[in-house]
Amino acid sequence: MFHKLLSYLFPQFCIVCGVEGTIICSVCKAGIVIGGVYACPVCHKENKDGMCCVSCRSVCALEQHIAMVPYHNMEIFPKLIQQWKYEYNQEAGECIKQYVSNFLEDNQVFSIDIIVPVPLHRRRLAERGFNQAEQIARACAKKLCVPLLNILIRTRYTSQQAHLQREDRLKNLEDAFSVSSDIVGKRLLLVDDVFTTGTTLNECAQVLRQAGATSVVGFTVARG
User: Fold this and answer.
1) Are strands 114-117 and 187-195 parallel, antiparallel or unpaired?
2) Quick one: pLDDT at residue 16?
3) What global pTM score does this model have?
4) What does the buried/exposed string (b/e) look like for 123-162 if buried means 16 or more CB atoms within 10 Å of the residue's CB?
5) Where are the chain's structural domains?
6) Contact 162, 189 (CB under 8 A)
7) How many CB atoms lie under 10 A from the CB of residue 10?
8) Is the pLDDT confidence value at 2 over 60?
9) CB 114 within 8 Å of CB 186
């Protein structure tokens, strides 16, 4: 009854065509193709598994990066992510998590021991009320039957990366993360919502590798 009342007072409209009913109508949903984005996390050269190129490994702690879709794929996923993160639309979040689950079911691409979400600082977590990376990671953990551990800690309150240029992004994240648990010898899946320059994932991966992880693979919903 409560949800019916909410839908009556605040009707949902398809973010693609605008028809009333749900966040993505069945017609628009049928046109969504999720083939995965597989490219080096540094030079962005496409390859079969998203592995970091040999020539790029000296500047990247990520062994591999895979995204579900390009960020501007029909503008559907940018809109879903924006509505979830900044407009607190939980239906958008549930939609994203379902696509993540479906993608992982169709693409058995990871050999890992632990899933780790990119953390929010406790202040930003209080502001937003949830960590979208952790929710995506939980969908991954459920589908892959791999434990999720919140072992990364954001030790500094930083500016939002989306508002910064590449050089500023690097400075913004210096010494911003620490590890709270023993991960020596573990293979990790590092999860976030969007990969743009890769600065955040790489900084997290460096900290995790320094703490003893044997490999860190990145997974995001979208890649810019």
Assistant:
1) parallel
2) 87
3) 0.89
4) eeeeeeeebbbbbbbbbbbeebebebbebbebeeebeebe
5) 1-31, 33-223
6) no
7) 7
8) no
9) yes
